[in-house]
Amino acid sequence: MKQDRRRFFRVAAVTAATFALDSLPFAARAAGDATGKMKIGIVGSGRIGGTLGGLWVKAGHQVMFSSLDLEHDKALAASLGTNARAGTPREAAAFGEVLLMAVPYGALPQLGRDLAGLIKGKVVLDACNPFPSRDGEIATWAREKGAGLASAELLPGARIVRAFNAIGYARLPQAAQRQSERIGMPMAGDDANAIAVASKLVRDIGYEPVVIGPLAMGKYLIPGTPLAGEHTPEQIRQIAATLK
Ligand SMILES: NC(=O)c1ccc[n+]([C@@H]2O[C@H](COP(=O)([O-])OP(=O)(O)OC[C@H]3O[C@@H](n4cnc5c(N)ncnc54)[C@H](OP(=O)(O)O)[C@@H]3O)[C@@H](O)[C@H]2O)c1
Q1: Which of 117, 144, 145, 244 has the highest Cβ tally under 10 A?
Q2: Ligand 1 center–CA 49 separation, angstroms
Q3: How far apart are CA 117 and CA 109, in angstroms?
Q4: What phi-psi label fits residue 225: left (phi over 0), alpha (psi between -120 and 50 degrees) or beta?
Q5: Could you tell me the pLDDT band of residue 19, with boundaries at 50, 70 and 90?
């Protein structure tokens, strides 16, 4: 019980620190222009990447979509207006001051090699989940290591924040419309500035960011864990306080 309480206060402290960071000028300067609008490169423009990209375009950010199908991405970008464009994964990685990885986990090892140099030092939101049935042995390894730490190893030098992992893509557009209490977005990361940038992007589409701890806690940000699905920020803090 004591341990749970200690963990709760630790989570609360991290969350409070992040909110404070979010208001600091250096965090705003790290990505985005004076209005806070950012250039976002999306690798994987399927259900989750396509949906999030569309929401960020609506929020005024500039987005470049990429996948294995440039024609699909050009059509997607054209449907979203002048703040959206399409390119190759390398072009998206170069374009974005912030990147979203939204591919099957099995694609990460090759992408890590292909994008090396382009992702180094960048804030990378990692929505990817390891499923052995879909992704093979790399997913088994990632689950054993913990999804966040595994992604960091596969994408060396990236400042990874795990987020958007366990809320279905179809629910994402509804958050911005919610009038009552906001839905929380559990996140995990080691880099305070990267978390501040990610928190802004989470807020911009209607969620309340809740940092549950360092990247090692990313192992709880996958479907099937207690944090999966929709929870209020307070519920997320309470659940996170029971995890170790
Ligand atoms: N669906 C959800 O609600 C949801 C929620 C949270 C997290 N996630 C996680 O997010 C990731 C994406 O899921 P999804 O449902 O969006 O999948 P999806 O609809 O199948 O989209 C996957 C995207 O990744 C692209 N892709 C695959 N291999 C690639 C590579 N080597 N290089 C560049 N792009 C590549 C695909 O391009 P092509 O179409 O050209 O092959 C496609 O655009 C998964 O790890 C999933 O577990 C999904």
Answers
A1: 145
A2: 7
A3: 14
A4: beta
A5: very low
The amino acid at 163: A
DSSP 9-44: HHHHHHHHHHHHHHTSHHHHHHSS-TT---EEEEE-
pLDDT value for 36: 86
By residue count, the chain amounts to: 244
How remote is the CA of residue 102 from the centroid of ligand 1, in Å?
5
| CA-CA-CA-CA torsion sign (117, 120, 126, 130) | positive
- pLDDT digits over 162-219, tens only? 999 999 999 999 887 777 778 999 999 999 999 999 999 999 999 999 999 999 999 9
Q: What is the pLDDT of residue 10?
A: 46
Is the C-beta atom of 18 inside 6 A of ligand 1? no
Please tell me if the CB atom of residue 151 comes closer than 6 angstroms to any atom of ligand 1: no
